Amino acid sequence: MRTSYEVFKATSDDWYPCFKMYDHTLVRVTCLELSDGSGWRVCVWGADDDGMERDWPTWQGQFPAFQMFMEIIRQPKISKQWLLDAGFVRA
After folding, report:
1. Taking a C-beta distance cutoff of 8 angstroms, is the pair 28, 10 a contact?
2. Per residue in 38-69, pLDDT tens?
């Protein structure tokens, strides 16, 4: 069974489109084990096809990916620039 964690988080950017809840714009933040077992990925996606991702190889274990996932959800709002500065790439 593949392990994954997922939350919706406020964003300050347009993710074409964002998820909406009342007056809030949100993105989906996911930390997951890759299906081929080669590592872990943290993804941040809007409601359609705009997203950013970063991978960690299996030999590093789950901790670095989960640590980044927690760092993202601790931010008041997620921005694309913050993710780029943290090593994410556009997917």
Report:
1. no
2. 899 999 999 988 999 999 998 888 899 999 99
